[in-house]
Amino acid sequence: MSSAANVVLIIAVVGYVVARQFKARQFSGNARRMLILPAVLAFLALDNHDLLDRHHQTTSAALLVIGVVVEVGMGCVWGFTTRVWRDENGTIWAKGTKATAFAWLGMVLIRVGLIALGSALGVASGEGAIMLSLAALLLVRSAVVTWRAREIAPAYRVPVAG
Predict the structure, then answer these.
(1) 26: domain range?
(2) Contact between residue 138 and residue 41 where contact means Cβ atoms under 8 Å apart
(3) Long-range contact list for 30-34, CB < 8 A, 24+ apart?
(4) pLDDT in tens, 35-92
(5) Is 25 within a domain?
(6) How far apart are CA 56 and CA 73, in angstroms?
């Protein structure tokens, strides 16, 4: 994919995810569905020829690893700041909170900081690193929310003895 197409894809994915995050949504728990977007992003990132800077491979690889590890951590934070609950019918719901918004802001600031650090070190940063990190973020967030949803005790509809 071209550089412009990658940027459009990244913006579209982030916009889509953020818009959905702050609406109460019924939790499906469908593992295949949770894997589709991260898998596509990871494939496109690994297929990208500018994932590592050819002139600074060690430094760019270190920045890539740091970026992915940070996004994994932020995926955990995002997953734990998401409100997960069961309604009176037993349906599980999830919705982002104010803390989730701050987690997103922190994630963006960290990403900008990593890009600035790479630039200061003379390392060219491509969209592939952002797509791979975003894939890790989405995968971990989905795993955390799924784990939390499965930990919620079922709401049994038992009549109260009177």
Answers:
(1) 3-151
(2) yes
(3) 31/146, 34/139, 34/142, 34/143, 34/146
(4) 888 898 889 888 877 778 788 889 988 999 999 999 999 999 999 999 999 888 888 8
(5) yes
(6) 26
Q: At what angle do helices 127-151 and 3-21 cross, to 10 degrees?
A: 20
Please report, as a single letter, which amino acid is at residue 135: A
Count of the separate structural domains present in the chain: 1
Predicted confidence (pLDDT) at residue 94 exceeds the cutoff of 70 = yes
Is residue 20 situated within a structural domain? yes
Dump pLDDT digits (tens) for 110-154. Answer: 888 988 998 899 888 778 888 899 899 999 999 999 999 888 866
**Cα(144)–Cα(80) distance, integer angstroms:** 7
**Radius of gyration, alpha carbons of the chain:** 19
